[in-house]
Design brief:
Blueprint lengths: L9 E5 L1 H19 L4 H4 L8 E6 L5 E7 L4 E7 L8 H15 L4 E7 L3 H5 L4 E2 L4 E3 L2 E9 L1 H4 L18 E4 L1 H14 L3 E6 L4 H4 L2 H11 L6 E6 L3 H5 L3 H8 L4 E5 L10 E5 L3 E5 L6 E5 L3 H17 L4 H7 L1
Parallel strand pairs: 4-5, 10-11, 11-12
Antiparallel strand pairs: 1-2, 2-3, 3-4, 5-8, 6-8, 7-8, 9-15, 10-13, 13-14, 14-15
Helix pairs in contact: 6-8
InterPro entries: Acyl_CoA_acyltransferase, DUF7931, GNAT_dom
GO molecular function: acyltransferase activity, transferring groups other than amino-acyl groups
Protein name: GNAT family N-acetyltransferase
Length: 323
């Protein structure tokens, strides 16, 4: 299967005993040299008891770190300056949250510098209490209740997957793509990802599809739709029903413009719950396939999509429309 070139990020769980030198080097650069935190306050006696993470990039270069104490306190999140705005911090935070859920933690707590609050809010953290100074820098406490991911998450249907659902079915034409897109959205329980050139109105701006998206997005507090668009001109300059839904439900449905200097080998696809795939194989014609249950292939596409998503952001023209 073709792959998308993207900035590679590998996150590893490490201990202080095995990786203390790398952890210290990154934190010293960020906290001591950049932010002026006293050395005596940067390293403490809690490090040996904490779980640590290091993000590695091209050439196995250590780019960032974070730690979590046994009581669920997250801290020492540090990303070296050359690697910021590349999705590195987000990759570490996703790993921390997955680890905490796996370990049965009830909540995560952290002390956020004020400029970083929107970053943590994106993962569901909520500010708790007043602003205070830590090492001379304004902070606020933030809390993430992990029960929202465990107890309230939509439960998968406990049924046997049929052979038909595992079959890749060829489709052709805008109408067939629209019908199959609606079918997949109606099956969705938690996540929808759309990677598209221009949000073709015949597929994504009709009542049937938008009604299905709206029903999904309002079905559960954790339901999310993320749309990555290569060319936003049509979305910005014309009325587009799906974009209007984004304005109504900005925390549930988000659009970003694809930002990458590398050629993208995929043409267009939609992913549902890491299992369902709608895939357009030719750039100039609506020819492709749909498969409702293909988790191995879907997970690969999800990873590629998420890395591209974190390298992209809300386009300034879309931001003005939001305002």
């Amino acid at each position: 299967m073709d792959t998308v070139d993207y900035f590679p990020i590998e996150v590893e769980e490490v201990s202080w005993q095995s990786a203390g030198e790398q952890l210290t080097a990154i934190r010293h650069k960020v906290f001591v040299e950049e932010q002026g935190v006293p050395v005596a306050e940067e390293v403490d006696d809690l490090d040996p008891t904490a779980m640590h993470w290091i993000a590695f990039g091209p050439g196995n270069v250590a780019m960032a770190t974070a730690r979590m104490l046994p009581d669920g306190q997250v801290g020492r999140m540090a990303v070296l300056k050359p690697y910021r705005q590349r999705g590195v911090g987000s990759s570490i935070m996703r790993n921390i949250i997955r680890y905490a859920i796996r370990e049965g933690k009830e909540q995560l707590v952290l002390s956020a510098q004020l400029h970083a609050i929107p970053f943590y809010e994106g993962f569901g953290f909520i500010s708790d209490g007043k602003e205070y100074l830590d090492a001379g820098i304004p902070h606020r406490t933030m809390v993430l209740n992990l029960h929202r991911f465990m107890d309230n998450a939509p439960k998968p249907l406990l049924r046997e997957i049929s052979d038909e659902e595992r079959q890749r079915v060829g489709i052709e034409g805008v109408d067939e793509f629209r019908d199959q897109a609606v079918m997949l959205v109606e099956r969705a329980q938690r996540e929808i990802r759309i990677f598209t050139f221009k949000l073709e109105p015949g597929i994504y701006a009709n009542n049937q599809f938008c009604d299905a998206i709206y029903s999904f997005a309002t079905s559960h507090p954790l339901a999310r739709v993320r749309i990555l668009v290569k060319d936003l001109a049509q979305v910005i300059h014309q009325t587009h029903q799906l974009h209007e839904l984004c304005l109504r439900l900005p925390s549930r449905i988000q659009i970003r413009k694809l930002e990458t200097k590398e050629d993208c080998l995929h043409t267009e696809f939609m992913l549902v719950d890491r299992t369902g795939i709608l895939y357009k194989q030719e750039p100039e014609r609506f020819v492709g396939y749909v498969v409702p249950h293909a988790p191995l292939e879907a997970v690969e596409l999800v990873e590629e999509f998420d890395n591209l998503w974190e390298q992209s952001e809300l386009d300034p023209d879309l931001r003005r429309l939001h305002i």
